Structure prediction request, 306 residues.
Amino acid sequence: MKSLKDLEEIRKRTLDTINLRKDQSGTRIVVGMATCGIAAGARPVLLAIMDEVEKNELADVIVAQTGCIGMCRLEPIVEVYRPGEEKVTYVKMNPSKAKRVINEHVMQGKVVQEYTIGAEEK
Amino acid sequence: MKELSLHILDIVQNSIEADASLVTIKIVENLTTDKLIIEVIDNGCGMDKELAEKIKDPFVTGRNTRKVGLGIPLLYKACTRCDGDMEIQSEVGKGTRISCWFKYSHIDRAPLGNITDTILTIVAGNPQVDIVYLHMRDDKEIHLDTREIKRALGEVPINEPAVLSWIREFLKEGFNSLYGGANI
Prediction:
């Protein structure tokens, strides 16, 4: 059975990593989580991103949520802000596309052009 | 929405938008009376009476970026087509309570779906908001309170991956006992 006592353990175990995270200003990933995003499948996209960030131990990545970005027909939308670079907007996302964005863009700095709003709106 | 848990995620976003610090999500599955009740109660900024009465209309919204808001109207439609209804109580400065109910066995009632993912999504993105999750099914219940979790965690943020995994496992155990071990 899971109990609150487990959390004491987690507390001891994770204190160091948290301090590490505080010191770094890294990539910010934002997922649109309004009615349009949720209906289009933003929840599994967000959870896939969080999973991938955890799996690859990306301590300097922040995953955040926002409301409606105003392009409901292109949801789920994911925005990636890498320090010193321009924002990249990915549209019509799904969990496997999200994994690719983490692996290629967030980790290696290579934008996945084909999923960007620029490629979609051509 | 394909799952009621997605509606819940959506309605809770309203609470967060309303600057709530505490959101209670209550689900009651009453198989005896064939009723499913979902309530979202927050301590956010609330709405005045006029807005609260009109908010089920998709062309009425509290936001000012555009003139439509679909969260509540979609849930309202979902429950009314299942012999249910929705009630909204709100007071400016105090908060809002959205209660809706469905005929449990109605053919059009969407499944509750993945509540765990909904709660994890809320907690991960809004660590500052406290969530109380209460789920009753006949005489069994699940109870999760992020305030208790935060107390145990001290300075460790609740959206740490290890903590989110713990919440996932905690809820999994809860649902197992709620549904007698059957997969949902």
User: Anything to note?
Assistant: Chain A touches chain B at residues 1-2, 4-8, 10-11, 13-15, 17-18, 33-36, 38-39, 43-44, 46-47, 50, 53-54, 63-65, 67-68, 70 (CB under 8 Å). Chain A has one domain: 24-120. The helical segments of chain A are 4-23, 35-40, 42-55, 95-108, 117-120.
